[in-house]
Design a protein that fits this description.
This protein has 382 residues and is of the alpha+beta class. It contains eight helices and 20 strands. The two termini are 30 Å apart.
Amino acid sequence: MARDTDVEVTVIGAGVVGCAVALALARQQATVALLEAEPEPALGASGTNSGILHTGFNSAPGELETDLILASSALREPLLRALGVPVLRCGALMQPLDASQRAAVPAVAAVARQNGVAVVEREDGVLEIPGEAVTDPVVYTLALAAEAGRHGAELHTRCRVDSIERDGTGLRLQSRCGVTVRSRVAVNCAGLEADSVARLARDQSFSIYPRKGEFLVFDPPASEPLDQILLPVPTTRTRGVLVFPTIDGKVVAGPTAVDLEDKRDWSVRERARDELIPKAAALYPPLAGAEAVFAYAGLRPAGHGVNYLIRSATSCPQLVHVAAIRSTGLTASLGIAQRVAEIVRSLGVPLGPERPLIGGPNRKLSGPWWRRTADYRVAVRA
């Protein structure tokens, strides 16, 4: 990218949501600059989640988050095929562990039916969700970024935005790497730093805090291989600890849910194993005596009193916030991008007919996705 550039839309943040937004806009023939503070896309929350592509079976009906999860389900299959993103179509089982949990399962099934998601209620009380799947979240994000590039979007990394100012009818963004971008509209997909970006435009209307989710990675036991996602019956606060297979043949248990203030604390607590193993082993007994081969933590960008905030800034309509996108961001990213494109069009950016996906080879990672961000954070601290 040139040191100074003019585009129609600037997208701030190249996590899975930012890359999906950049792709949606570029496919609709907008000129797009995608600015990422880290050296590569998906080095934050997008690279440290479960990789599960949810159906929305247990999402609250009528909420924006649910609507965007369901919208994504309709958009995802053609994209996965065209971009060659790996998917493990394994389905999931929700296993009640006692009578009270078993009594709660029919309500979960009713929500699924209300959302139009196919489930099977078994006589033993287990709920089957055949549409649940697992992907490699880093490959998924990098594939979105690469496809956005094939449609003309410009990706610039190590480019943290330092200022946002009005510039005529648009905005002027400057970054500490020396790049200046002028655009009619900017989209704030900065994840944990979305509130910091909002402050650059003098918008104090929301704040973001990190909710830490810790995961343990295991070699699969030969005696009882895992071929489905295992889900607990959810509570009002959390969906609980899951056990699931990965694309590369591992078994993962997690996450925890620890609310923090420090947005740089990507460490795994010593007591995380003691918190996770009993809950995971209740679903999948082979983990009771197993030793993890790796542990990682993700920081989900949670909002104080807000979830899935997608709207223009209160102080600057040309800045569109996509903030407080928590653990379902991977799943909902395509629906989010579709909604953002509608907002961008309403702000006067002339979007054209959607162009077909092009596709191309996926980038090969040097190691497993579940190590990538954790190793990077260790290197940064060093």
